[in-house]
Design brief:
- With about 270 residues, this protein is mainly alpha-helical.
- The chain folds into 3 domains: about 1-20 and about 40-70; about 75-110, no CATH class; about 120-260, no CATH class.
- It has 10 helices and 4 strands, in the order H-E-E-H-E-E-H-H-H-H-H-H-H-H.
- It has helices at about 5-20, 40-70, 110-120, 120-135, 140-145, 155-165, 170-190, 195-220, 230-245, 250-255, and strands at about 25-30, 35, 85, 105.
- The chain has a two-stranded antiparallel ribbon. Strands 3-4 form a two-stranded antiparallel sheet.
- A hairpin with a 6-residue loop joins strand 1 and strand 2 (about 35).
- Helix 5 (about 140-145) runs antiparallel to helix 6 (about 155-165).
- The model is unreliable at about 20-30, about 250-260 and about 265-270 (pLDDT under 50).
Length: about 270
Amino acid sequence: MKGRSWFAILILIAAAAALGQEGKPTGENQSSGQTAPVIQPAVISSSTASMANVKNAIQERVIELIKLINLEPNLLMINPKAQVVKDSNWRPVTEDGKYNQDYRVVPDDSAPEISQAVNVEQNRQKFTRELVSIGLEAVPELVKAVLDPANKYRHYLISALGQIRDVKASPAILKIYWDAVEKEKVAKSLESMGAAADAAQMRLETAADKKAAIDALKLLSGQDFGDNYPKWEAWWKETEKKVGKVELPKLYEAKGAKSKEIAPSQPVKK
């Protein structure tokens, strides 16, 4: 079922349950003479419980989607249903200039596990789109997941936050941006010490998060400061005066944050 429809159906079910339990009319409408329905306290309680169940279901799906995005597929699975497909238009050329065989092996991705392994990039994009379709209710869990370094593919989560456009997600995104800036400094130091391979690996791991953070900040702010952290930090400080103080989740503070500030543009003087 498409991401936009599954939780909307849950809400409709909850609303229908509440409407189905409306109390019997007990009075007359003075202006029209028609009976006016009265909703009993028990109905209100039932409706509240139904909406709570819907919200819980949405949060469970958000958490599930985050896990699916960060899932590493098992690429060693056996695929007994793979098919050989003849294709007259498929003509890869070998190094000696001759045509290769006019067939290709197509994996069977009907099983969820195989589909996840074969179409891993497409699936992560699909899960990201579903998070965006959920909207503001997905933001709290997304923020926590973005700040969790255990999530290797968090650039998808950062992208989702940018597309949802809740400006209060900016501190978490700025935190990831700042971490990327610091890691680039470490990579430069590694290069100067002759550890070029380690420096390249660190830059590779950082690049996706940094790009996603900058792109998300562009969507949240409507501004484009490029790769200039101090300007983005200054934008947030001005924006924070309008939207109010936004604290990072305790998840990050518990992992060693020394300050409630997002990240200093300049070293703190002692």
